[in-house]
């Protein structure tokens, strides 16, 4: 039973969100977030608040989507559609985790970080999941705002304000998400079609989806270079960003020109790409 409740929080995604939030803290503190120069509990409460917000939003998403999850091959074995967890209990858990995230960040970190976390929860669990997901393919792009906020929250936890550096981190995560999701959505196109979810993979041809993804990836690669030019990271970060970006763009060009189905590889490489970018943010921070 406990493991099923943990699954509702999407632990893999929550861990990734916490890591991107920590990256924002690390960069904002110039790599001293774990040192004595900052309050000892700042790191703990900030990361815990970000994790609780992600977990709460995931539970609320699972609660609302339990009807369509039951019909999709990829999601039918989740705890709620499979009947292993009561829907009311899941709803209460989502509300509790989300509320705890807001209160913790508000009391122990700062008002702005609490506001951003609450915004992320609201955008993902209500704007994206409850309103847009079943109505428009634009849901992916609008919902991506919530997934781009964690590094911004981490930055604000340390600095208390939003700056150009923080906005660049936000922009990179925002631009990364649509092509990442669309690669998966194309792979699971029939599932989404069956339950009437108008994702881009359902409402447009694979060629149109890949072209739109290429536009996002092109913008992502360009934005990923800006931090070097404003002095956030060193030359090693620049080299890795350029090489990883060229590979990413080349994969999409191959798909578009050769008309090959490489969605599985595009999905996995998108994870490799963003992991490399964030890793070298740590390694080559100025």
Task: Name a few traits of the molecule.
single chain; 286 residues; mainly alpha; Tetracycline Repressor, domain 2; 2 domains; 13 helices
Helix content range of the residues, please?
over 70%
Total count of helical runs of at least 4 residues: 13
- Supply the CATH architecture of the largest domain: Orthogonal Bundle
The CATH superfamily of the largest domain is: UbiA prenyltransferase
Number of domains: 2
Plain-language structure description:
The chain has 286 residues and is mostly helical. It has two domains: 1-162, Orthogonal Bundle (Tetracycline Repressor, domain 2), CATH 1.10.357.140; 164-286. It is 77% helix and 0% strand. It is flat, with a radius of gyration of 19 Å.
Give the topology.
Blueprint: H1 2-8, H2 11-28, H3 42-64, H4 66-69, H5 87-108, H6 111-132, H7 139-159, H8 164-187, H9 189-194, H10 200-203, H11 206-229, H12 235-258, H13 263-283
Summarize this structure briefly:
This protein is mostly helical and 286 residues long. The chain has 13 helices and no strands.
